[in-house]
Amino acid sequence: MKDARDWVAHLEAHLPLALSGEDPEGVHQVRVAGRRLRAYLDLLGFRVLKDDLCFLVRQAGRVRDLEVALGGPLPEGFREHLRAELSEARRSLVALLRSPWMGVLLRALRHLPPLSKGQARKRLKRLQGRLEARFLELRAEPSLERLHAFRRALRRVRYAKEFLGLSAKRERALQEVLGEVNDLRVLKGLLQAYLVIREDPEAQRYLGEVERVLEAASKRALQGLGLAPFREGPQSS
């Protein structure tokens, strides 16, 4: 059974790279560490620090999402828009990581207590119950929103099991299947937000392409879960 020390050290080790912006992996690993530590709080049954970690993950996630989106071929106007958004998101993240708030958070994380194995296993069962509930909701009415909620619950169960030294091969494999869907879902949202503020026929056509690829990826993901595709495409709810 593991404690939080390794992931606190992981977070601290990747802060310089995240601050420099030289390698997107730095921000990615800050977000991963934040999510892992949030799962540790789930197993402790702590509410304290959870909002702080959520905020850190959200700020790092904004940068990471933009970096991933910019990694592929995009309409030029949309690409320039994302570059400007990324520049602003990076400034906000750097300010956060250099703030006194970050230092206080790190000090608090270093003092998290070890897990009680019995209590942690009980809390894992609760997380697994939530995952089952998300699956049943998805099975009852498949939609992108419910698939995303299932993916988030799945990730928390995986991380919790790994803290307890339990096999999470099934959860890890499912996460990989759902990862493509999530990247496309985020890209679609970024495109839609861009098209609200700017008329861009090329980006509008590209949105149609993204929606088609997203629908196909969603169908594959649902089939991997043993479920039927969305009834009315990926925008149904």
TrEMBL record:
Domain annotation CHAD: ranges: 1-219
Pfam families per UniProt: CHAD
For this protein, the record's PROSITE patterns field holds: CHAD
The secretion signal range is: none
Q: Domain of life of the organism in this record?
A: Bacteria
Q: What is this protein called?
A: Metal-chelation protein CHAD
